[in-house]
Amino acid sequence: MPVLSLPASIEPFKWADRAAQVAGDVPLASFPRLCEGLADQAGTVQVDCRFERDAQRVPWLRGTLTTSVTLTCQRCLKPMALPVSVEVELALVHDEEDAERLSDDADYLVVSEQGLILAEILEDELLLAIPYIPSHESCELEYRNPEEPVGETRRENPFQVLAALKKPAADE
Ligand SMILES: [Zn+2]
């Protein structure tokens, strides 16, 4: 896909009227808040989104965002690659009153006629898909399974025992 710079500011309802599509590879560097949390800012996000109206004339922003980001594992502090794939499905409404006409499970955005910053919307969606405290799966298992301190007897917490029984075995 071509490298795409996202439009600075758009008119979301007009874009929905004309079923505008936004597709291409957007550099990660276009998303500064996302980049703050990344160990490596090189790379792109494959954006494939469209504005459209459904049969009830409700405008939507729909599509997918696909990328791989490099985070820092908060247990071993080494880099970890995380594939990210986000489905975007947001109804575009003028106000909360508009939103009440949507089905209960619909996500929506209150937007004005113009001035929508698409990069910020997409960035929010990406941020939601990234763990607040990232860690490798193997590091996570290690942390949940600390060695019993030597020379100390401790009553086991029944919930911890239960959790240990439920989780898959660590490295053999
Ligand atoms: Zn780790």
UniProtKB/TrEMBL annotation:
Pfam families: YceD. GO terms for cellular component: cytosol. InterPro entries: YceD (IPR003772), YceD_bac (IPR039255). GO terms for biological process: ribosome biogenesis. Keywords: Ribosome biogenesis. Belongs to the DUF177 domain family. PANTHER family: LARGE RIBOSOMAL RNA SUBUNIT ACCUMULATION PROTEIN YCED (PTHR38099:SF1). Plays a role in synthesis, processing and/or stability of 23S rRNA. This is Large ribosomal RNA subunit accumulation protein YceD. It comes from Fluviicoccus keumensis.
